[in-house]
Write a sequence for this structure.
């Protein structure tokens, strides 16, 4: 009896220790790290010190905007963020000094996220795109149906060395998504890599083999391809640069009968991402794909771009709802038609990234990773006035110097801290102010990462609560904050 009594006392004491520990943990507030980029204060990814999240901090009654965090609700995990390795980007990289090359590599891909903005995804064009120096495919031999003359030798000059340098700088940690802008001209109905032709139905298998051969070829350069899209912008074939038109039904048949089986046979670990065009038609294409299990079985999910007359974020949400087991990622967003110091374009990246993340996107891949400021390397109707391209990149070479644009910092406020594996968590965003946007994640170390953007002309105080505690950050005018703090064990 005494032994049993002693045993029960021991159990009670152990339980009390646990209860005390939990209460102690719950009574502990947090120092919240604040990272800030803003136009008026001249801060760029700057560590602003800490603010306190704790009991005893009273919400400001006059605040019109608040956030309440519920980290027990979990949504999608982050795949990653990145940019495209176009030939124009590679050309620009090849023309700067070795010191500048290292500066660019460190700015994007250094694993030390105090140095880089943590890019871990990239897009790789399969042959010529609208930012290539020439029109070319990897097999221009007419009617070479066996693809005997297939070769990526063209890329060996500047493209492959650039990608290899970035891949090495990242610690071999880049998921590459490859996309063709056009099949070889002889595979198209108009016999031209430009223009509104389709892939000839008799060459569907040859195109699947062409993509497979590209994956095989790049692997020989230690450049593993993580995923592919069947066609870049399949609804935009009538352009002055390489393109190919598909309907949703055509691409579904290509995936089901050719690309899917071919990659399953030769590259079973390579993912297929459908669509790869604008949000406005994303849902329509997803409905076609997901209604056919013979197509769905081959799809990782859907890729989309940001070019449309409206944002159509609701289409992204509806696409997720259509098949919650599939994935979503934005694969192209170009910074076009703006001045070199255009702060509004940086805000556009912040706005799109935050809103895409809040409707289940798992990543965001902007277009050219680097360009000369005059956009050298384009041709066609988007070349710009007097041959000067109006599209830019987050990093440009201006008067011989490496210049980081506002978009670099806006992207970095998100990509630097939402590392792969970070999971979106629940939050109630109660905003009475316009032009205010936020998203909240938990990283693999169980830190809460909250990003808040304010594109108004005035600063905004905000009440934020988490697990009974309050903090009141000030979001600067035309600025973006990243708030970071350890979560509580109850959330883990």
């Amino acid at each position: 009896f005494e032994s049993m009594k002693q045993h029960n006392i021991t159990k009670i004491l152990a339980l009390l220790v646990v209860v005390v520990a939990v209460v102690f943990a719950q009574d502990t507030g947090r120092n919240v790290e604040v990272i800030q980029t803003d136009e008026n204060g001249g801060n760029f990814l700057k560590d602003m010190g800490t603010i306190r999240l704790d009991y005893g901090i009273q919400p400001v009654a006059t605040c019109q905007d608040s956030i309440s965090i519920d980290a027990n609700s979990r949504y999608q995990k982050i795949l990653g963020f990145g940019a495209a390795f176009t030939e124009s980007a590679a050309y620009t990289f090849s023309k700067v000094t070795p010191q500048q090359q290292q500066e660019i590599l460190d700015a994007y891909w250094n694993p030390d996220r105090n140095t880089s903005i943590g890019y871990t995804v990239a897009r790789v064009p399969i042959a010529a795109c609208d930012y290539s120096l020439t029109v070319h495919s990897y097999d221009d031999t007419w009617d070479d149906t066996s693809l005997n003359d297939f070769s990526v030798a063209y890329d060996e000059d500047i493209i492959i060395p650039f990608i290899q340098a970035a891949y090495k700088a990242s610690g071999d940690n880049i998921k590459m998504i490859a996309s063709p802008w056009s099949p070889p001209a002889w595979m198209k109905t108009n016999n031209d890599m430009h223009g509104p032709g389709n892939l000839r139905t008799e060459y569907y298998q040859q195109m699947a083999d062409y993509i497979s051969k590209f994956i095989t070829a790049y692997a020989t350069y230690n450049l593993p391809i993580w995923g592919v899209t069947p066609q870049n912008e399949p609804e935009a074939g009538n352009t002055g640069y390489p393109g190919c038109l598909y309907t949703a039904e055509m691409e579904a048949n290509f995936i089901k009968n050719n690309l899917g089986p071919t990659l399953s046979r030769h590259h079973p670990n390579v993912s297929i991402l459908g669509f790869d065009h604008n949000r406005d038609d994303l849902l329509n294409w997803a409905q076609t794909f997901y209604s056919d299990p013979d197509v769905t079985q081959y799809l990782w999910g859907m890729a989309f771009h940001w070019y449309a007359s409206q944002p159509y974020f609701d289409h992204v949400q509806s696409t997720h709802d259509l098949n919650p087991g599939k994935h979503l990622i934005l694969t192209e967003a170009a910074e076009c038609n703006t001045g070199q110091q255009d702060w509004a374009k940086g805000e556009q990246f912040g706005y799109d990234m935050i809103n895409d993340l809040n409707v289940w996107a798992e990543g965001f891949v902007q277009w050219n990773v680097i360009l000369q400021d005059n956009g050298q390397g384009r041709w066609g109707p988007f070349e710009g006035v007097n041959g000067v391209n109006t599209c830019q990149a987050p990093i440009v070479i201006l008067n011989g110097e490496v210049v980081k644009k506002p978009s670099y910092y806006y992207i970095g406020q998100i990509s630097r801290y939402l590392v792969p594996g970070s999971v979106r968590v629940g939050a109630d965003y109660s905003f009475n102010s316009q032009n205010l946007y936020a998203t909240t994640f938990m990283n693999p170390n169980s830190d809460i990462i909250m990003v808040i953007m304010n594109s108004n002309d005035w600063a905004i105080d905000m009440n934020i609560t988490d697990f009974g505690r309050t903090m009141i950050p000030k979001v600067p005018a035309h600025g973006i904050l990243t708030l970071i703090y350890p979560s509580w064990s109850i959330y883990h």
User: Anything to note?
Assistant: The two ends are 40 Å apart (CA to CA). Residues 16-25 have pLDDT under 50 and may be disordered. The chain is about 30% helix and 30% strand. The CA atoms of residues 157 and 182 lie 21 Å apart.
